[in-house]
Amino acid sequence: MNIALIAHDRKKGDLVRFVTAYLPVFEKHSLFATGTTGKRIQEATGLKVHRFQSGPLGGDQEIGAMIAKNEMDLVIFFRDPLTAQPHEPDITALMRLCDVYNVPLATNMGTAEVLIRGLASGAMDWRHLLQGKRLEGLLDKEKGNGKRDGT
Ligand SMILES: O=C(CO)COP(=O)(O)O
């Protein structure tokens, strides 16, 4: 599964501790993160993390683009509800896309616990069905392109 990890500055320590606690789960999946969050997680855990731009520079939007392409299976986003963010519209857009595409989203540690335990016990295997569809879609597209190219 593809998992997005994002945390605002005052929540980064919590996310690093969370990922460390569930290391055996996270190391079985592909991890993506906004810039600074990803760096902190990599440094603390040694996990391989694909890092996008920092959140205020477009990282939330890059993760949103993956959601819109059905390439993200789970989002863990430890938001700071007590601090105004300069890129609030990007944050809202990311969460909205999770709802549009039915992507499980945890915005706090309590929900993240439930999601990660669910992930570990196979409760998210239904996402594989979508991944199958994703693959079919890509193959169909390739076939279509082939026809147009005359190849
Ligand atoms: O701002 C963020 C999410 O909205 C997080 O970005 P960083 O991980 O780069 O700090």
TrEMBL record:
GO CC terms in record: cytosol
Record Gene3D superfamilies: Methylglyoxal synthase-like domain (3.40.50.1380)
Reactions catalysed: dihydroxyacetone phosphate = methylglyoxal + phosphate
GO biological process: methylglyoxal biosynthetic process
Functional description taken from the UniProt entry: Catalyzes the formation of methylglyoxal from dihydroxyacetone phosphate.
Protein family membership: Belongs to the methylglyoxal synthase family.
PANTHER family: METHYLGLYOXAL SYNTHASE
Cited NCBIfam families: MGSA, PRK05234.1
Protein name: Methylglyoxal synthase
Species the sequence originates in: Caldibacillus debilis GB1
Higher taxonomy: Bacteria, Bacillati, Bacillota, Bacilli, Bacillales
